[in-house]
Amino acid sequence: MKAQTYTDKEVIAAIKSGGPKRQAVIRFLYKDASLKGKIIQFVSRNSGNYQDGEDMFHEGIIVLDRNIRQNKFKEETSLQGYLYSICRFLWMNQIRKQGKITLVEDNKDMDSTETNTPEVVLFDNEQKEILNSLMNKLGERCRKILELWKLSYSMEEIAQELGFSSAAMARKNKYRCHKSLLEIIEKHPKLVKTLKEH
Amino acid sequence: MEAKNFDKIEAYLAGELSAADAKAFDAQVAADEALSLEIDLHTIAHDAIEVLIEEDLRSQLLALKAEETTTSSTTTETKVVTLAPKSTEKVVTMQPRKRRSLFPRLAAAASVAILLGFFGLQYNTTSNSSLLATYQTNEDMGVSIRGAKIATPLAEGATAFNAKDYTKAIAFYQAIPSNSERYNEAQFYAGNSLYKNAQYAEAAAQYGKVAATGDIRYKDQAEWYQVLSLLANDQLDTTFTTLLDKIATDTNHSYSQKAQKLNSSLNSTMRQLLH
After folding, report:
1. Residue B88 Cα, gap to closest chain A Cα (Å)
2. Are A22 and A68 found together in one domain?
């Protein structure tokens, strides 16, 4: 069976709409062997190995997904070029931290606009630890509601997914969970201070 | 926290206010410290949800990778099956009388090959090291430098860690005095360095110490890493099972779902048969 292909616009629309469509295009992006190969090649020629290249490809998809959802991707380049530039940035950032600064560009089919630095916001490990620990003070159901809400699921879809009787009930629960999370954060001023220091 | 502020802040952060309203709100925030703090809280809440989404997506990508690996292994096994009948045909052509007796034997051989391949694959995918590869992500056991623009007390350890000089990193983190405000952090990173240095038993003990401090920044991670360290050390003893059960049954634990999955992988019939 031939795998379904998507245009850039379809990928963007699917990621913004969330749900199964988002899952399908994530799979589609992941299966792009040509792009994955270019990223692995770039990383391998710049102090990394195959595994590092695969890791960068994964992390690049994660940043791409977030940037599309947050309207940070301006559609000035192809999606493939944008993902390549994100992965390139991530790897450069990593090797810079390790004190390795050689750079070999070898993907001539990626033009200069596609290797410009994209807007990439990274949470470091400490930030992730703190944010995770705060989030985990909520129950699993609350975490799921907030996750689906942030992924642009409608209240009807959240109700259906989590078994609420109506969209209104889903909305009520989302509000309650969101407020609980804010209260949890407010109770940990030291952690808030640490996060703001980053 | 008033509902009115709640909705307005959310609209502000989502960029849904008109330009004029956003400008007026900016001025209000600048003059009101409490409101400014509320915005910080909302921003952190959004970041926390975002990290959850990231983790879910990371797991999905690892699942896709595992799917690819499985598919490629299955393809290799298929080759064994298709090759057997070909060799049968060749023999049959040269020795027609043996056709009846030889085919069942070769078919049986092919079946055995399939079974051996299948169980071989299952053995590999249910081994401790394979389970570890599934549950330990690239993001795990790292270190970070807080406040990148200034020299921080733990920067030297992070530099050694990133240069993969784990022995130096371990010595550095373990030398941080217990009265330092970064002590728990250093202890946690000592655990990560021990793990990366393949000193799994020591890493497990170190994570146990960190978890016992109850510091919410590290407790859940330290407990889960203790499980992974014990698994890496093939030490599936009472400490391991008790801790894994505790994490799996605590739905508020950051690693509850992963622990449940690991538990069911460990208890799978296939694993019980093969290990």
Report:
1. 31
2. yes
- Whether residue A3 is contained in a domain is answered as no
Number of domains in chain A: 2
- Say whether pLDDT at A32 is over 70: yes
- Cβ distance of A62 and B57 shorter than 8 Å: yes
End-to-end CA distance of chain A: 48
ipTM: 0.88
By residue count, chain B amounts to 275
Please provide the CATH number assigned to the domain covering B155-274: 1.25.40.10
One domain, residues A102 and A129 = no
Decide: pTM greater than 0.90.
no
Note whether residue A120 is domain-resident. Answer: no
CB contact under 8 Å between A27 and B64, yes or no, is yes
Task: Say yes or no: A149 and A177 in one domain.
Answer: yes
- In B, residues 45-84, which contact A (CB 8 Å cutoff)? 45-58, 60-62, 64-65
Q: Which two tokens stand for residue B7?
A: 């909705």
Nearest to B220 by CA among A128, A147, A183: A128
Instruction: Using CB atoms, pick whichever of A98, A183, A185 lies closest to residue B162.
Output: A98
Instruction: Judge if A93 and A140 occupy the same domain.
Output: no
Q: Which domain holds residue A52?
A: 8-115
Q: Is residue A23 part of a domain?
A: yes
User: To 10 degrees, the CA torsion angle through B184, B188, B194, B200?
Assistant: 120
Q: For A37-69, how does the pLDDT look when each residue is reduced to its tens digit (9 = 90+)? A: 999 999 999 888 999 999 999 999 999 999 999
Give pLDDT, residue B123. 53
Find the CB nearest B53 among A31, A151, A197.
A151
Give the one of B139, B163, B220 whose C-beta lies nearest to A98's C-beta: B163
Give the per-residue pLDDT at B98: 43
Q: Are residues A15 and A69 both part of a single domain? A: yes
